[in-house]
């Protein structure tokens, strides 16, 4: 709320509205716009959308609008935008920009036309001759007006009323005569009236009235009371006397002889002759008809007294007859049946309706007492109450349309007359529906599923979602939509019927369980909604219902934001295949590197020892030697070991178990999942295949050649090479998986040409 001086120049700042948003970025950027604002607000004020500053757009005149009330909305730029609003009350502060206005009007029998008033010379002092109305459109001190008569004239201003509730900026004065008038002395008076307000600086204005004094009879008849009020009971007898009026005349003779007559009051155009009459000599007023206060409670007419002078003078008084009440009417309801419509869920002790009852009598005869009368089934007992003064009906409970749709009861009114009179009316109360019930899905249940063959055609009906709503009308008008679980757009639901149809072609990747998240919304305001799960199992048949049921059970604990649609391993299998191909290529590369390293060592050893003359350059690596036993090392009689051949070391595979222990055999290593193996050169023992027996200790390193004609030439090979006894080769098996699919048949199995058999090493 703020105050603004009227006539403020455009651009004048008024106030700044500020809103806070805890978000950041675009979501925290706030803009300000007018909310509920009239056209005049938008025309007169400007609101900066960014800063929230409210300023003057056009000059505001308080006399046209003294207050502007509107709302300002703050909203962020997020999606969806969030808003808040504030009410702004702008009070326009008055400025002293209006001069007082003076309006002179006719009053009584003094004629006034075109600024000229005709006053008889025999008017009494202090007789009002005109009504002066002074007003100032400003407010407060700026509108407080002081009015005076300027000059030495026999006239003065007097307030028309002494009431404190009279507005300060609107006042009425009577222009009275302050001294006797004499036509023979002064015929015309120019009366100047000046009005000054109390603003700073003050503003003033003036107006003038020309008073012309007329030469008339000096003493007309005069009544002792200008207004005579009389109380007269209703249901009277015709001809009864109501009152007696008396007028006097200061003159004498014929000028003092008075006759009385009835005339219509200036405030009423109805002639009183048909109801009242007056004796022309005595002034007795009688009633000629039976009065009914309920038909009319006040009669007003004028009694005129005329003298018999020439010209004749007259005086008048107003007679007001007020008809006294008698209890001759019973209470009456405006309607025999009152029908009210209330919303359900109304807070207890809230008003639900108002009955209107009246009694044409008055006073105690019209004082009514209202009460609730229970119906035949006592529906209203303890539920409704009524306020005696206003007839407002209150409910002590909150209504639920789904339990009871209507209530019927009676209201009784009793007056306070003697004897008392009463009346009753029927109240029918209908409970209007509120959207307080969310839709209920009756089919399918969240834990159920339906089987859909992959060969199903387009537009095949998969299932029908059935929902009900306990409300009525638009609040029970349901529409269906799929809000999740349909990433492939295979399914579509009819918004009105809830029929779910197949609209996409099924592919192998769609096989499996689909969880459709269906939302059912009603059309109420605000709308209510319910979410249901529809499970569709795409497969030719249902071979294992337990597996499907377990998948459905798992989906019930899966967040709705996560889609369950088809075979989740379909795409994963493609990724795994790509990974396997990459792993195989890597293993083959490692194997080739190992072969290159072995051949390089072999070549260096050969160049060191040389070849014997006449000895074959090539020996069959896979041909067993027939004299292995002769070359085996022996112990002498003294227990000493014989000299070991020069090349007695072989390459063996040794791996560690996960717990740090060693494997007893290669097969044991391969029986486990592929792990990290180690390769090292050790002396051949009883548990390891010894290839040194196939070679002579004095022979140079053999050369291994794979001929195209050999049976194994078309397969993958791994050469096992003896190394010098002083050389130990330790290789890390981090880059080699023994259980890999790339382990060749020859690298994992010893040839039948060996004297000892080695177990086959095949892929795990």
Automatic annotation (TrEMBL):
Pfam families named in the record: Cadherin (PF00028), Protocadherin (PF08374)
Residue ranges with Basic and acidic residues bias: 609-621
Localization (cell): Cell membrane
TM ranges: 577-600
Coiled-coil residue spans: none
SMART domains, per the entry: CA
BP GO annotations: homophilic cell adhesion via plasma membrane adhesion molecules
Polar residues bias locations: 697-712
Lipid bilayer topology: Single-pass type I membrane protein
Region (Disordered): 608-649, 658-677, 697-718
Primary residence: membrane
This protein's UniProt keywords: Calcium, Cell adhesion, Cell membrane, Glycoprotein, Membrane, Phosphoprotein, Repeat, Signal, Transmembrane, Transmembrane helix
Basic residues: compositionally biased ranges: 629-643
Cadherin domain boundaries: 4-102, 117-223, 224-333, 334-441, 444-548
Keyword rRNA-binding part of the UniProt annotation: no
Entry superkingdom: Eukaryota
GO cellular component: plasma membrane
Alphabetized GO MF terms: calcium ion binding
InterPro entries: Cadherin-like_dom, Cadherin-like_sf, Cadherin_CS, Protocadherin, Protocadherin/Cadherin-CA
PANTHER family: CADHERIN-87A, PROTOCADHERIN-7
Name under which the protein is recorded: Protocadherin-7
Source organism of the structure: Charadrius vociferus
């Amino acid at each position: 709320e703020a105050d603004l001086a009227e006539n403020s120049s455009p651009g004048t700042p008024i106030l700044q509205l500020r809103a806070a948003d805890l978000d950041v970025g675009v979501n925290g950027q706030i803009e300000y716009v007018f909310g509920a604002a009239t056209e005049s607000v938008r025309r007169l004020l400007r609101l900066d959308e960014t800063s929230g500053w409210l300023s003057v757009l056009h000059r505001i005149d308080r006399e046209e609008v003294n207050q502007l009330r509107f709302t300002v909305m703050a909203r962020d730029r997020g999606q969806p935008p969030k808003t808040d609003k504030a009410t702004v009350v702008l009070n326009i502060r008055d400025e002293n920009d209006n001069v007082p206005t003076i309006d002179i009007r006719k009053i009584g029998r003094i004629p006034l036309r075109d600024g000229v008033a005709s006053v008889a010379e025999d008017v009494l002092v202090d007789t009002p001759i005109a009504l002066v109305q002074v007003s100032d459109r400003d407010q407060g001190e700026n509108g407080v007006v002081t009015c005076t008569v300027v000059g030495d004239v026999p006239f003065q201003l007097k307030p028309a009323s002494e009431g404190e509730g009279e507005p300060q900026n609107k006042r009425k004065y009577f222009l009275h005569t302050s001294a006797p008038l004499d036509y023979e002395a002064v015929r015309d008076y120019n009366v100047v009236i000046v009005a000054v307000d109390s603003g700073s600086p003050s503003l003033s204005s003036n107006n003038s009235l020309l008073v012309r004094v007329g030469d008339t009879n000096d003493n007309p008849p005069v009544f002792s009371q200008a207004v005579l009020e009389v109380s007269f009971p209703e249901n009277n007898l015709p001809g009864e006397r109501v009152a007696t009026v008396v007028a006097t005349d200061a003159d004498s003779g014929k000028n003092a002889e008075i006759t009385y007559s009835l005339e219509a009051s200036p405030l009423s155009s109805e002639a009183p002759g048909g109801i009242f009459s007056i004796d022309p000599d005595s002034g007795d007023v009688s009633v000629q008809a039976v009065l009914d206060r309920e038909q009319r409670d006040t009669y007003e007419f004028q009694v005129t007294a005329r003298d018999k002078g020439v010209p004749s003078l007259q005086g008048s008084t107003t007679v007001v007859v007020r008809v006294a009440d008698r209890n001759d009417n019973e209470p009456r309801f405006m309607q025999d049946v009152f029908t009210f419509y209330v919303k359900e869920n109304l807070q207890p002790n809230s008003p639900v309706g108002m009955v209107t009852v009246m009694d044409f009598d008055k006073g105690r005869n019209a004082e009514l007492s209202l009460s609730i009368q229970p119906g035949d089934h006592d529906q209203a007992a303890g539920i409704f109450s009524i306020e005696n003064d206003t007839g407002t009906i209150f409910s002590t409970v909150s209504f639920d349309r789904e339990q009871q749709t209507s209530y019927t009861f009676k209201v009784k009114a009793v007056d306070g007359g003697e004897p008392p009179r009463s009346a009753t009316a029927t109240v029918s109360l209908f409970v209007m529906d509120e959207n307080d019930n969310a839709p209920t899905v009756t089919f399918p249940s969240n834990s159920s599923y339906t089987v859909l063959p992959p060969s199903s055609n387009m537009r095949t009906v998969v299932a029908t979602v059935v929902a009900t709503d306990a409300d009525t009308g638009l609040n029970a008008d349901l529409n269906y939509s799929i809000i999740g679980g349909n990433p492939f757009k295979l399914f579509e639901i009819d918004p009105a019927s809830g029929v779910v149809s197949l609209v996409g072609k099924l592919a192998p990747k769609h096989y499996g369980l689909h969880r459709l998240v269906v939302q059912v919304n009603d059309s109420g305001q605000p709308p209510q909604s319910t979410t249901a799960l529809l499970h569709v199992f795409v497969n030719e048949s249902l071979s294992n219902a337990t597996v499907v049921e377990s998948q459905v059970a798992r989906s019930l604990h899966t967040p709705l934001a996560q889609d369950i649609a088809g075979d989740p391993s379909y795409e994963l299998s493609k990724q795994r295949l790509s990974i396997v191909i990459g792993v195989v290529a890597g293993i083959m590369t490692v194997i080739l590197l190992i072969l290159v390293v072995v051949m390089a060592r072999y070549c260096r050893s050969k160049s060191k020892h040389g070849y014997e003359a006449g000895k074959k350059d090539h020996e069959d690596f896979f041909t067993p030697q027939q004299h292995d036993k002769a070359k085996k090392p022996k112990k002498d009689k003294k227990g000493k070991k014989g000299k070991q051949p020069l090349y007695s070391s072989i390459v063996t595979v040794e791996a560690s178990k996960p717990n740090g222990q060693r494997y007893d055999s290669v097969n044991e290593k391969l029986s486990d999942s592929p792990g990290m193996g180690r390769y090292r050169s050790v002396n051949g023992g009883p548990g390891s295949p010894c290839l040194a027996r196939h070679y002579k200790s004095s022979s140079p390193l053999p050369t291994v050649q794979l001929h195209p004609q050999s049976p194994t030439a078309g397969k993958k090979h791994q050469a096992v090479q003896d190394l010098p006894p002083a050389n130990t080769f330790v290789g890390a098996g981090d880059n080699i998986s023994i259980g890999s699919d790339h382990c060749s048949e020859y690298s994992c199995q010893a040839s039948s040409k060996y004297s000892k058999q080695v177990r086959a090493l095949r892929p795990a």
